[in-house]
Amino acid sequence: MDSYLLLGLAMALLSIWKTYSGPALAGFVGFSYPEMLLFNVLPALMAGCFGWFIGRYSFYLYARKNFHPHRPKLRRFVAAWKRYGNKTMATLAPVLVGIPLYTLVARRLRQDRVTTFILLSSSILCWSGLSYSLVNALDLSTHFNLQGLLTQIGL
Question: Which of 36, 40, 104, 129 has the lowest tally of Cβ within 10 angstroms?
Fold first, then answer.
């Protein structure tokens, strides 16, 4: 039971930033689809809420003189946002920049909260399902013996 919860925690931590990595791990260790949703989609959505509500305090961070808010990757993301719009960026956010940063930028650009979270939820579900399904469809767990490796290290 302890290894089950440790694997769930590892999947949740992986899914907070890059959505496709946690469901892939769930597919490797043989978790069911509802377990994958529990340990991956819910923490990803909580990270999105965290980024949204921290976004209101980010205004104070940008006001500091020594703080450099314009990182090259973030600058490219905002430029792509202005070019392609909220729908495309919500679709690519779990893969490109991560969920908390997407919601932080959406908050800074004054996007609608309901629209942002509907788009983000559908994107998280799609990327998680795709990652989990590919690992299971290609039967990657037999090619990479992750379960054997985990038993060797004591999990």
Answer: 129
Instruction: Say how many C-beta atoms besides its own lie within 10 A of residue 146's C-beta.
Output: 16
Both tokens of 63, joined, read: 């006001």
DSSP states of 60-84 as a string?
Answer: HHHHSSS-----HHHHHHHHHHHHH
CA distance 20 to 78: 22
**Residue whose C-alpha is closest to residue 141's, from 17, 34, 18, 28:** 28
Which among 143, 119, 124, 96 has a CA at the least distance from the CA of 36? Answer: 124
Q: Is 92 exposed, middle or buried (0-12, 13-18, 19+ CB in 10 A)?
A: middle
Contact predicate 44/99, CB 8 Å: yes
Render pLDDT for 37-52 as a digit per residue (tens, 0 to 9).
Answer: 888 888 888 888 888 8
Q: How far is CA 52 from the centre of its chain?
A: 14
First to last CA, the chain: 10
Q: What is the pLDDT of residues 62-96, one digit of tens each?
A: 555 445 555 666 777 778 888 888 888 888 888 88
Burial class (CB in 10 A: 0-12, 13-18, 19+), 93: buried
